[in-house]
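=== Structure Prediction Worksheet ===
Name of assembly: unnamed complex
Input type: mixed (protein and possibly other molecules)
Chain count: two
Listed entries:
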Amino acid sequence: MVMGTTGSKLEKALGDKFPEGERFFGLENFGNTCYCNSVLQALYFCIPFREQLLEYYAENKNVGEADENVLTCLADLFNQINSSKKKTGIIAPKRFVQRVKKQNELFRSYMHQDAHEFLNFLLNELVDILEKEANETKGSPGSSSQSEKVANGPVNLQANGAQKEPVITWVHKCFQGILTNETRCLRCETVTARDETFFDLSVDIEQNSSITSCLKNFSSTETLNAEDKFFCDKCCSLQEAQKRMKIKKPPNVLIIHLKRFKYIEQLGRYKKLSYRVVFPLELKLGNMVENAEAEYSLFAVVVHVGSGPNHGHYISLVKSHDLWFLIDDENVDTVDESSLQTFFGSAQEYSSNTDHGYILFYENLGGRS
Amino acid sequence: MASPSSSMSPAAPGLKTYFKSPEGRYKLQYEKTHPAGLLHYSHGKSVSQLTVAYLKEKAVSQGQSAPSTPSSSNVVKSAATRLFVGVNGSRTFSFGGTNGASKAGSGNSRFAGNFGGSAGPSGSSAAANFDCKGSYLIFNAGDALFISDLNSQDKDPIKAIHFSNSNPLCHAFDSVAKDGHDLLIGLQSGDIYTVSLRQQLQDLSKRLVGAQHYNKDGTTNNSRCTCVAWIPNTDGTFVVSHADGNLYVYEKHKDGTADPSFPAIKDPTQFSVAHARSSKCNPIIRWHVCQGSINNISFSTDGIYLATVGRDGYLRVFDYSKEQLFCGGKSYYGALLCCAWSPDDKYILIGGEDDLVQVWSMEDRKIVAWGEGHNSWVSGVAFDSYWSAPNSDGTTDNAIYRFGSVGQDTQLLLWDLEMDEIALPLRFNPPGGSPTLSSGSHSAHWDAICPLGTLQPPPSMRDVPKLSPLVVHRAHSEPLSGVVLTKESVVTISREGHIKIWARPGEGDISQPNPDAVVSSSAISKDRMAMAPTTKVNGSTYKQTASIFLRN
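=== Predicted Assembly ===
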């Protein structure tokens, strides 16, 4: 399965700078599966995620064929890369892709798919599997350090009063943050706060702006009035209100999705926004969060290549041991840190540059020692 | 006069040709650019930078420079003729692609029609000052360096210098250079040139004329030149910073053929200085400043301090002659991209990838003001050394600094910095308290002693007084890369080398007799200029935060 002929090229390029113990494998494309490959590479180079997944693999490697699921297939794949004798090469994530297609008909066709949708599906699927396993093993304490009860109050109370206790899996620990949606009724001044969990933040983008600015807009105060009033429980009527989003609990790994695919009503279809949105290599959440001194560091970018939403290609940029790599399906190349700026987008509407940062992965530097 | 404003901002809907400030209107006076179609292959690789050069009258009996002979009148005349051809000629011949650009604009014929009027000032001044005395804009784009006349309406440059092997990225001008070599150019390949600006103007070929070449083919350092600077009051010593975190000191005209072998850098995380082993070497000194790129450097006006900012997010201020770190601090987050000294050397502006414009105090050795207003990275900052507070009552206590900043959000922002804002939290002591002891009631940021020679951690958002911009103006349709504040104008440049000259209130009227007629009426009706009292950027809330803190 491991083919690896391009390996020597990358090893030569890196020379003695080749990160010790690290593996760089391209992923074969099975007909428009670049959306999957690009996300898998970003997740592989998300060290806390990879470590947890390999740990999971070590604990569950004797699972039979019958119990195969997306999680076990992914763990298998990561292990295959991680334990490879070769440092570089190409791997065909065949079993994983087949499993995903089996699980979700959306990804069954050979059409171009949205990498963000896939990431969402994948993380939720992993969480579902882990939660199920945690609930099954409940009552036998000590066997699982992988889950624990939610520490702070009710999160996601929409569970219809079902007795299902929310568990926090290692996927949650990696990616989950909590948003607080605060609404202040302008008549009675009552503040209603509603918590929501998230695995990623989807932000609207503007031409010639920064991620900092997009996040600021995301959490900026919005007035609900006219057609869009707020039903205040205290006033028992529709009232004008002010709404803002705050981050109550910042995630360990912050995933930011840039809303580059926008539905244009006049056109009756989606259009790709090629806006130039600069993303810094380090980031703080600033006003969005109470204590904003935690610094995030960029470690992966999923890049959409192409001018439209229904076609194109995905590649990824990943950081490993302070070196950056561009991974395009089978091919892995080193790139200079400064070349990341070629993926910011276009300052003007019509441009030949179609490679645009689409999903950004930041890791909290304080979260890892 | 057909409205020049329409031709001034072609294909840029929503861009206004003026902006308001408390002291009056700044009006778009001229635009400068480079020949179109020249850039595409190198597009995005290099960012245009801007240098404003004031070329003085040529001093008598200069040995080194130009084709000057003691029997002046003849030579002088021919130089003048040549220059005049150059100024006009850009529309008719020469300069490679220059023609193409002016053809594209409908301005061509109109400018030709107006020619007598528009070329009058520059033409006549050129004729009167045949030694090329004047104000020039020097800017790079793609593989070329361009020189434009600051005070002419002509959009096209007077001269284009093409570099065959690499792109010019940075440049600096020394207005008091004694021997004629006053223009310093740094390239992507690491190569550096010094030339005489006057000589370039007198020879209108596409070549660099009479250049001295340093770090040839990157023999000493082959990483990108990021910034070049003449060291004030030294006559001919200059500094070049590189993308690998090193900077080098050179002596002009010193033959650098000897290979300057500096020792290997032992610890790339530590600042180190190495002097060349041989006196024949040029560069003479290497400073290893930081890991990652040095993005910008700036000397204090007295030449005592050198400020650097870089990829690692640190501002470092060095005592230049002692070769020691004096003070410095970290950005809120991300790389720092630009820095600039106040005219009195008391403050340094820094801007970068945290979208902030911050003010560093040399006296307190920390950040004393935090400017939020840009929606993207801050790429250029500059103090306004020609600004004087309009309501100054004679006392200096309330002195106001004015400064400008530009960003990748295409905006130009102007800011006022009042002494109260920055001084109060620093000097505040509760009544009855000892003036020498801190009260303990306010934040550690203000109480902390900042020892000499150390770097400060990032400022915390709560601790620093916030500033709001006085003026927010979308100046270009593209991300901006630099701003220069001259006596008459604010000059902005975009990353792709488009320049706009915004005349200060009262200034533009002299050369443009009827500016109000010129500004299209639609632009006036759509006026949504954000000014301090009605600013959309939450100006009042930021001010409030600051004042709450002050009362604390």
